[in-house]
Design goal:
Length: 646
Amino acid sequence: MNPATKILNRVLFALPLIAAIIFHAVALNRWAMSIPAIVMIAALVARERNLTMTSRRTYVAGAIGLIAGLIIPVSNVTSGVLPDILIGVSTSVLICIAVLNVAAEKLPITWISAWTLVALSASVPMTRVVSASLTVFLLVTFLVAAWQIGLLRFRTAAIMQLAGLLAVVALSTLAIAAAARRVDTVMLMSAHAMTINNAMQNATGLSKNITVSSQNSIRLSKRPVLDLSTQSGYLRTHVLDEFNGRQWSTSARLMAQTHSFETLDADNSLTDTLPQQRLEIVFLDDLGDALPAPAGTRRIEHAKSRITGGWILRGAPNSHSVAIFSNAVGQLPTETEPSNDDVLIPEELQSSLGPIAAELTAAAKTNLAKASAIETFFHQNFEYSLQTNLDGDAHPLVIMVQEHRPAYCVYFASAMTVMLRSQGIPARVVSGYAPSEINRLTGRVIVRDRDAHAWVEAWSPEQRRYVALDPTPTASRLQVIDHPEERGIVASIIAAVRSWIQRVYLAATKAPLQLLGVLIASRWSWMVMVIAIAVMIYFRRLRKRNSCFSNVETIKVDPALRRHYDLYVRSLQQAGITPQPWETDEEIIARIANSEAAEFSEAARDFVTFYQASRFGGEEFDENRKWSPIVRHKAESPFGPLPLTS
């Protein structure tokens, strides 16, 4: 093998580890650790030194990695079960031991170290740079692996044909996917147009306006729209602060307001001492520019977002899901005192509902105490219904409150807001989703169309923020909307599997790199991989044991013959010819004839001919027969330089 070919093989051998170290540096900002490691690998590749692995050298490499891990910090870690310090130490030790294996030319251990390094480094947000470096690592690894096993050793014409086939498949896949998405969108729009009327839009979590009329009804839909990683409380989509007597809408004043998470941090509007929670929201349906989020959200990832008036998030997810970080108690940020616009109601409602509200709140001293009293009034005296019949001479809200008629959330929220405003308490209607379908095994929550809801936010001068209250009778509502009772174990498992498949499908079609990063960073993926490798090793050994040598009645291999063949292979290796697993004996001999050891090809052919005659032709093998100068010399000098002739 000429020197250039040897260097090329060593470079290809080390490339996956170099790509993994670069990914580690990009993901965790550890260039101070990665650059010296890459320089060391380059030096080892150039020097052509085969170092022998010993326990002492492994311990020294591990100690160097431990010290480096304690000195060089990691950053950007946002997920995973390992703390920053443990990730830093473990990755540093892994890099040092992997570099040692490069020096010893231990390919399996080096590549396993590279994949493990990527897995430990993937507990970061998948930005474009991180995704690009992960893509480079995967491409390099797969291409080098394909080269190692001979898949890329084709002629130019074959490579061009393969590239053309892959291009056709890729373009066809993209075209079919685009057409499917288009057809799916058209079908969904048609279905919505046929099954959802204006009355339904009055109750949906995405309604920009809410109408209060004498007769109305809503249709329930079990269509899933969101998949949540955990229970979150109310998810807010609209704040409606303007009421003309018949319709709630968002005022121009509120729509003109904008906020930012940076402002929240600067003003400390969301107290850092409050417990924090991370909520992953998977979008199962298109919600336009709505980003449903709990009160108290202070950071969002994987989305281009903005904060509008009332602390409502607008924007679009980068792929199929977003990660929201909020305080676990669901507190909105503090803000300035509301204007008088938040207490305006028509005179008819002031004169009719004002006295009722005053009587209910007579004993209360604070805004929240008064709001709680009115909330309790609705809980104890009303029933939930999907249809409203509020015909009469008075306003529909007046008839509902005075006669205790059943209604749905829009009417309860409207009536309570009007009653609070009649007492001079700033209040507003909020629409969104009230998640309630929890999987008892996984803790994940499915949000459906039927979970669309409306509730109230009342101003608390003591807290300097709006506080959520829900006047809708909860138990009655859950019964009417056909909320599923607690599932059994089997039903929970089926629901969990269905949810998992749906999330994987969305990730594979909309964010394949993000899915790949999650799989690499998941301990379950590595557990499955370890089990799969163990099973493969077991069956490989079983198959090897039961292969052509297993039929002892028809084919018996003399141990001496097998030993001499092993000696033949080792003598070839020491002469610079390394047989590959996919090569036949004839291909090896042809390669010898075209190499610097061409003069030994006849000796090799002599041995192979005799071996095949003894192995497959039934000829008796005589170990003492001097038929092969290769093996005879091998037997005479097993440890010295072994030329192919005596």
